[in-house]
Amino acid sequence: MSAETAERAWDELTLSPAEYRRAGARYRQQRNLRAYLFVVPYFVPFLAFLVVPLFWSVWLSFNQGGLLDSAKFVGLQNWRVIGADTELTTSIKNTAIYAVEAIFLVFTLALLLALLLNRYRKGSNFFKLALYVPLLAPAVLVGLIWQFVTNYDFGLINVVLVHLGLGRVNIFGNGTTALLAIVGAEVWRGLGFWTLYFLASLQSIPEELLDAARVDGARGFQRFRRVTVPLLKPMLLFAIVIAIIANFQVFDTVYVLTQGGPYESTSTLVWFIWKRLFQFQQTGQGYAAAVLLLAIILGLTAVSFWLLGSRRRRRPREA
Amino acid sequence: MDELGDRSQDVLRADRAQPEFSRRDFLKKAAGVVLAVPAAGALVGSAAAAPRIRVGNAAQPYAGVTLQFAKAPFGNDEKDVISKLLAPFEKKTGIKVVHTIVPWTVEGATYATNYAGPNPFDVSYQTSTDLTGLGTKGVLEVLSTSKWLDSPSFASTKKKFIPNTIKKSTYQGKLYGLPCIIGGTVVYYNKDLLAKAGVKNIPANTTQLRAAAAQVMKNGGSGNWGYQVPMTNKDFNWYFQYHNIHNWGTDIISADGNSVTFTNSAQRNALQAEVNLFLKDKSAPPVGQYSRDDGVALFKAGRVAFLHDEPLRLPEFRSAKLPFKWDFVAPMAAPSGKRTIFSTTGHWVMASKSKNQAAAWELVKFLSSPAFANEFGAHYGWAPVRSDVNTSKGDPQVERINSYVLKTWDGLPTGPKMAQLTDVYGQAIEAAATGNKSVAAALVKAQKDGSAILRS
């Protein structure tokens, strides 16, 4: 093949800029289409079971009925009614107190257990399994177990208190202790998960950093405070976001143990919603409270992410 | 070979002797067979089926109909009890009844989701707290029409209902369910414990009960209690207080249904009488210490002198062969002497979307009839709502409950927001009985919350 023939063949093979753009667009289109096809199995249920019900719930919060009878637009009436309902403010307050107590307790205990399991590996598999089992138990079973734990006459807590010479406590006769019982049940249930989460986080910390700190003369607690905790912070913040979302939706333990009593002291937001929707058939009010819960969770999540983001943004400067 | 050859030739000849069988003939015959066989089959089938259909129409007018029936149970054996009692009905009508147990704890959610769907339970059981809430949403058939309750064929049966039950269950002229049972509450007492404490007379009113319970606390031995009644909202405390309200001459809602009446003096006195047993005398276990079932267990263990609970405990106590002598009386009167017995009313309802309403009405009528209600009421200790129903079966204890109920029953006024109002009242009882609020303050809050509910 002469050089001239080869050049002509090359020219024929080479695309003009316009052709090149078209081919590129075609390729990107096909690539995107393939990507969308992969997303479809997730996206369809996401639309059907989350996005559509979400917007439908928002719409129904401005309507009366809609579950058993046809929806009737009532404007802001449902919002006004739940806004004036003292049980709603009590429920928000209870949920917030419960969430703070539960998250603080479960994180503290889980971190301690994770540190122990990280340090003493012998037999750790057994303890991991033992800690994880409560998470596998259905909420109703957890509630029943906790009815035995909290029983006035023979419950574990009161038996221990009597042995300590402190006397029995009527746990469900007092708002504070009743809420603490719910916290206890949820902490017991969630402890295994969070222990394993923190254990995995601890094991991701490079051993060299701890060794270096040790060589520099840092003691155990100093290493924990100066090396472990700063490196755990991103995981901790993520855990807080997840825990807030989960704990603001507490319902099943409340349902089994107290049903919001005594005198609304364990009434949580989801319990409030459940009562309006299913016990009183006030669907509009139930949807309005559900939308409010969503807004609260979104707000708290946004704040948490902002905190997480701000840490990340600051890190280069700190370095 | 020859013989064989000869015969073969004969066969061949014989074959040849057969008439010509053309393709057209074959097709004609095949088509004939294709058409004739199903036709003959259909004729034979219809001939065989026709007499059966005629017989079915006479004996089983609803043969092939399946009804979905749902009920929150009065006991663990209820499905078997109902199945046994429905067997003759199913045989007679040809209706197959599929029974779904709806636990009391998820009753509201189950019915709300079920009635929202296209195939709701054809027949279900609803108490007066839920009846009108569901009825006014249009999911229950209005029975007070000429098609059902007011039909000429039902006129003679309708006359047998205790008028007050129909009246209490009717909301704005509409009745959404056929009253079937009246419950009531009674006060069981431990004769041995009372004797030990030196209580000679069984109390008849709240003042006497207070004195007797205090005497048990003083002389009945440590670890024993004078009185036990469900007092948490979780255990439907309002249900066990409502007779007090009626006895003191009031209700939680005005007669016209337009306002709540939590703050009158009668209301305060009624609640105060009960709260005194818990907070002043400490004759009853503190609220929250024992659930309703725990309280019953304490009574069965001989540790409670007076137990306020439902008559449905009767078979339980009998079968348990309690190690002490016991009996029961009607709930305590007010000091004025007015003594009523309270319960919500049970109703059989039909779904407005039921595809088999005629069959459903047959089932409702049967459930209400003596054929079902005598035995069913007797088994669980319910009082009848019809003069031709007798749930006692000659049992003197059940006869006594029935006589309390039939003479002094005063039920819950029905309304679409009664479930919310009773919840508000339950919260007030809980707040007052735990000492979290004074009786007056708890009722003021109930008045405020109840008024907001009625306005919404």
Concise summary:
The complex is a heterodimer of chains A (319) and B (456). Chain A is built from 13 helices and 2 strands, in the order ααββααααααααααα.
Topology:
The complex is a heterodimer of chains A (319) and B (456).
Chain A: H1 3-13, H2 17-60, E1 63-64, E2 72-73, H3 77-84, H4 86-119, H5 124-136, H6 139-150, H7 156-163, H8 175-203, H9 207-215, H10 220-247, H11 252-257, H12 269-279, H13 283-318
Chain B: H1 2-17, H2 23-59, E1 66-71, H3 78-93, E2 96-101, H4 107-116, E3 123-127, H5 128-135, H6 155-158, H7 163-169, E4 170-171, E5 174-175, E6 178-182, E7 186-190, H8 191-197, H9 206-219, E8 225-228, H10 242-247, H11 265-279, H12 292-300, E9 304-309, H13 313-320, E10 326-329, E11 341-343, E12 345-350, H14 357-368, H15 370-380, E13 383-384, H16 396-408, E14 409-411, H17 418-433, H18 439-455
Parallel strand pairs in B: 1-2, 1-3, 8-9, 11-14
Antiparallel strand pairs in B: 3-12, 4-5, 6-12, 6-13, 7-9, 7-10
